[in-house]
Structure formats: structure tokens, C-alpha cells
Write a structure and sequence with these properties.
Blueprint (H helix, E strand, L loop, with lengths): L4 H12 L8 E7 L19 H16 L6 E4 L3 H13 L8 E2 L8 H9 L7 E6 L3 H9 L13 E6 L13 E6 L6
Parallel strand pairs: 1-4, 2-3, 2-4
Antiparallel strand pairs: 1-5, 5-6
């Protein structure tokens, strides 16, 4: 399912002007998979994936893999449910789990904080995948997309978009091109 009518027309404009699309970066936002209800006395941070979450995470990774969307870098909230989702998807995407970078700032982060973390990235990662939590991850996807609005990203939903930037520090709101949104129960 694609997001944003404006996104498609912007990409056509880039191609018409012969802009080097190899300089584009891709950001993929993933809401953690479905987690168990917390047990009495259990911290929110420690919630584990439930059966559905354990099923949905590899399925969403297979969908990304079928579209050849393998990240160069994975960032995750260190909360158990987010890190577990990242680890399962990394395995399916043939990304080394020991290279998943954890950042405490992504735990229950708002959109501004998520983008702050991404903008700080150095190096040559062209495709970055971020595992985070709602409502921040949904709000971030909406602020990045130049197109349609997502009401909410269900658990294990994936938003991905390209950005005509050569450095993550230049990432800006409403600049996502060819934005796409998928989620486990999406049969389209």
C-alpha cells in the first residue's frame, strides 16, 4: 500500500530533472510487534512478544526482503519487545543481530526525538531501519510523508520512504518520497 499522491509526482519531477537518485537515502520505521500484557509488577520495558508478535515479525521481514529492502543499519529501542522484533526481522533479512544498535532515546520517543537520533548518524548507511513505539512512530511517519495520513501504525507495521539527501543530518519533515506503508493484516 503506497502513501501519498504527492510522493509519486515528486519522484517523477526528480527523474525529469535527472537528479542522481543514487544519493537518496531510505528510512524504514517499524512499530514493535504485538507484546504480552504486562504481568503484575512487570515493568513496561520488560514486556515480551506474544505468539502473534512472534509470527508477524518474520512475516513483515519476508515482505521487505521480497522487495529487496535490506537495511545497512538497524537502530532499536532497547525495550524487550522492540529489540526482539528487531532481532527477528534482522535474522530474516540476513542482517547480523549483533550489529543492531540500541538507543534508549527511542523508548517511547516522540517524532522529534526519533528524527534527532537519525540525524546524528554518521557514516555511509543508505538504508536505516528504526524500531520504536507508538504513538511516536506513527506521528513520525506522518510528519515525514509528503502524502496521506496514517491513523495508527498497528503492531509490526512498517513505513518506508526515500529522501533526496546525501547525509542524514539533512533529513526533514514532509520530504519522504515514494512512501509505503504495510502491516501484518494488510492483504493488498
Amino acid at each position: 500500500m503506497s502513501l501519498g499522491k504527492a510522493s509519486k509526482s515528486k519522484l517523477q519531477v526528480l527523474e525529469a530533472e535527472e537528479v542522481d537518485t543514487s544519493a537518496m537515502r531510505r528510512l524504514t520505521l517499524v512499530r514493535h510487534a504485538k507484546a504480552d500484557t504486562p504481568l503484575p509488577g512487570q515493568q513496561d520495558w520488560d514486556r515480551v512478544l506474544d505468539r502473534r508478535g512472534q509470527h508477524d515479525a518474520p512475516e513483515m521481514a519476508r515482505r521487505l526482503r521480497s522487495r529487496k529492502l535490506k537495511p545497512d543499519l538497524i537502530l532499536s529501542s532497547p525495550a524487550v519487545r522492540a529489540l526482539s522484533t528487531a532481532s527477528i526481522m534482522a535474522r530474516e533479512l540476513k542482517f547480523p543481530a549483533d550489529r543492531i544498535a540500541q538507543d534508549e532515546r527511542l523508548y517511547l520517543a516522540d517524532p522529534k526525538r526519533i528524527i534527532e537520533v537519525v540525524r546524528e548518524l554518521a557514516g555511509n548507511a543508505r538504508h536505516v531501519m528504526v524500531f520504536a513505539h507508538n504513538p511516536g512512530v506513527t506521528d513520525c511517519a506522518n510528519k515525514l510523508s509528503a502524502g496521506e495520513h496514517i491513523d495508527t501504525m498497528p503492531t509490526c507495521a512498517v513505513f518506508t520512504a526515500c529522501f533526496a539527501i546525501d547525509d542524514w543530518s539533512k533529513l526533514d519533515w514532509e520530504s519522504g518520497l515514494v512512501a509505503e506503508f504495510d502491516y501484518p493484516r494488510n492483504l493488498a
